[in-house]
Amino acid sequence: MQNTITKLFNIKYPIIQAGMIWVSGYKLASAVSNAGGLGLIGAGSMYPDVLREHIQKCKKATDKPFGVNIPLFYPDLNEILQIIVEEGVKIVFTSAGNPKLYTSFLQEKSITVVHVVSSVKFALKAQEAGVDAIVAEGFEAGGHNGKEETTTFTLLPMVNEIKTIPLIAAGGIATGRGMLAAMVLGADGVQIGSRFVASEESSAHINFKRSVVETEDGGTDLTLKELIPVRLIKNNFYNQIQDLYKQKPSVDQLNDLLGRARAKKGMFEGDLEEGELEIGQVAGLIHQIKPAFKIIEEIIAEFIKVKKEVNIIEF
To answer: How far apart are CA 301 and CA 176, in angstroms?
Structure first.
């Protein structure tokens, strides 16, 4: 299954595992890479020394390409970038910031740079910044999201109209059918997050993994748009947010409720009541916790099967 994405990253399948906070450590990244996809270490929840440790362990766990995802609002960004260069990481995905700031710096170090966007406007800016590929992420996605609430299958063809570089689809994709649909709409590959949260190698707490499996249609919501929009499982913390909204809160009041380390409390420590549980709408299609290689195997098998079925439809 060779195309522009597999060639860009030197991988077998055009499947990228999202670099999610508190979930994407070296065990998951290396497992995805070993299975033929591209694994990403999520730097957003790691202190610089922890990231270095995960990169070093990932290099020992796989001889396949892997990368690091960096939110550009990260407080220790310069130190993080220096570690990435020192450790010889060859692929970096950036998000939540201006790609112009560091794309050239990274590419001068022979690092492939991909930027995550939530709108056509930001896709154009990323392209102008010279990134090597774009991830177009719809608001179905878990975690932090775009304020526009543009769905993946609306955003994707719009970005496809203006893009001149490889395009990766993200948000609401967890199956081979979803992957095929995204590629029909113009994607060269897919980035998958929520499905890999419920993998054996994910560093998410088992309570959170089970919560994802139990989440049904309508069990998530995009909220806290006044801060940074985030899609959450509806739990006690989410209910507290909704109660506060009834009072027309200020940004400071929302920040006070959010506090510190809510995501760590929920996703890494397993507090299902007071923690922030970030997951995508596609959780309703996730029914089992499985090894990463099995997840990729099933996605590819379904992709091939459905592609053949579509080819024999007559009109």
So the answer is: 7
